[in-house]
Design a protein that fits this description.
This protein is globular. The two termini are about 25 Å apart. The strands form two sheets. It has a six-stranded parallel β-sheet. It has about 210 residues and is α/β, with parallel strands linked by helices. Helices cover about 35% and strands about 15% of the residues.
Length: about 210
Amino acid sequence: MRIGVDFDNTLADYDTLFVKLAVEEGLLVAPVTGGKRAVRDTLRQAVDGEFAWRHLQALAYGPRMAEAQLMPGAGAFLAACAHQGLDISIISHKSLRAADQSVTDDLREAATAWMVAQGFFDRLGLAEDRVFFEDTRQAKVGRIGDARCTHFIDDLEEVFLTPGFPDDVRRILFDRDGAPSAFGAHKPPFETFRTWEEIADACFSTSGTRYRSH
């Protein structure tokens, strides 16, 4: 197996951070339940809400990136892959700078520093040269093909539906919130799992690897 993994909201968990930032910035009078999605939906109902949302994104992905959390179960999954000697690539659609130009931090540098702090390149066994940041979603899809991934894990349906997504890649959607799918009752061209433990079971079910969350 050659496994590709998205970064934002797949490995990096921003739910607590977005709520915290929204309160600090005076955009919410009190914390809300539902994490990042709830903050986004609440802000977009207000005048200039989209600008406020972009500002929070710039803060979270840049100067406050260190406060993001590792998605529960993701570390154990990556460690299990490393133990098996599998080729793991992190492939992310992430621009160098935020759309909100008031924040000038290098977003790719912030993400890499976060991965270092989380032990990606030592404790979890990833190779730093297998991390790819792409400017566009189309370029991300191209990279998935270039990396010869057999599996790709992402939190966005749209990635799997992008023209040119390799037909022979197993498409695994990480959807811990159980959000309604655009496909409704129709069968989508991807598998959906709500936890990293479920993803691990699906990937390793024929390999004999025992997966343990930690």
